[in-house]
Amino acid sequence: MSAQDSVIDLRSDTVTRPTPAMRQAMAHAEVGDDVWGDDPTVNRFEAVAAERLGHEAAVFCPTGTQANLVALLTHCGRGDEYIVGDDAHTYKWEGGGAAVLGGIQPQTVAFAENGLIPLDAVAKLIKPDDVHYARTRLLCLENTQHGRVQSLESMQRAREFVDGHGLSLHLDGARAANAAVALGVSLEDIGRCFHSVSLCLSKGLGAPVGSVLVGSHDFVREARRWRKVTGGGMRQAGVLAAAALLALDEGYKRLHEDHDNAAALAAMLEALPGFSIRAGWTQTNMIWLDLDDDVGEALATFAKEQGVLLAASAYGARVVLHRDVPASALPRVAEVVGRFFDA
Ligand SMILES: *Cc1c(COP(=O)(O)O)cnc(C)c1O
After folding, report:
1. What total of structural domains would you count in the chain?
2. Which of 271, 272, 284 minimizes the C-alpha distance to 318?
């Protein structure tokens, strides 16, 4: 057991390390030059991912940031606009890539309290066809949003809405698998609501690297061009796709355990005095503690000394459950947090 193993890392579900089965599959993956379309493992992964998400085609990307960027560059051209939540990952946490690299203007809209984008607000933001305005092309949703799940009906409503307004609909589905599991629907049910979806294999699904972007054949042909332009054309990427295939399969099947663990840990934390958990937000694998910045930081520092890592930000302290944190570790987490507030 390494020192790394005794630390309980709850900062994010990105910290999962590949399973022995993944390492095995990576070691034995059949590979080729994927930029030439020659990598059989990448090709198989893309076919499986497209099918799982109910789309014609898929393109394997190194990161979710790139998958979203490529999606935006494919949907929108220079001088176009996309409508996006004001705290959305694509807008706020990806370096403004669509504007920086694509000349694409983001039009933000405030997320509703449940993480939904209110369509009546979006309707007012769609620009008329007039030389004064950027051309509104796309609406971008996020599911899950800070761990909160958007219902299938809300996604279907968004699709009807964009169809009525001549826009396209993209899902930043970094954690769409968590949403599907929490909703008890298939990834395909979610995927079919959108013109394009990005999905991270490297979060709760547990692959070391990789995201996928799905859409129609035409969309993905164009996306492949933008992936190359943005430096994401990888060569013998089959070693990564081999792990990504297992993420879609075994990683997906066990994802509910993270949700169960989050609910169990939330119950333990709720029993502690001195702070509160953001009510109603523990819907998938994340728990948010409502703390002032300085308290959150002090908690993170204290917990780190006890071998428990969590993420403190201006947004609250975040605890994320994932495959490398077993249920047996939860009492120790609650004990450390309890000791901090006791002191
Ligand atoms: C993690 C994440 C992404 C992509 O992040 P990468 O680290 O680039 O893979 C995109 N959207 C959301 C909501 C995310 O949580």
Report:
1. 2
2. 284
- Look at residues 226, 252, 278 and tell me which one is the last residue of a structural domain: 252
109 and 53 Cβ atoms separated by less than 8 Å: no
Is 23 a member of any domain? no
CA-proximal residue: ligand 1, atom 14 (nearest):
174
pLDDT digits (tens, 9 = 90+) for 95-114: 999 999 999 999 999 998 88
pLDDT digits (tens, 9 = 90+) for 75-87: 999 999 999 999 9
Question: Which ligand 1 atom minimizes the distance to the CA of 145?
Answer: 13
d(CA 317, CA 191): 31
Q: Which structural domain, as residue segments, surrounds residue 335?
A: 3-15+254-342
Instruction: For ligand 1, pick from 11, 14, 60, 65 the residue to mutate: most ligand atoms within 8 Å of CB.
Output: 65
Q: What is the pLDDT of residues 13-66, one digit of tens each?
A: 999 999 999 999 999 999 999 999 999 999 999 999 999 999 999 999 999 999
114-146 pLDDT, tens digit per residue, is 889 999 999 999 999 999 999 999 999 999 999
Pairwise CA distance, residues 267 & 279, whole Å: 11
219 and 316 within one domain: no
What is the distance between the alpha carbons of residues 277 and 75, in angstroms, rounded to a whole number?
38
pTM of the model: 0.97
232 and 331 assigned to the same domain:
no
177 with 269, same domain: the answer is no
Residues 35 and 11 in one domain: no
Residue 208 sits in the same domain as residue 240: yes
CA 271 centroid distance within chain: 30
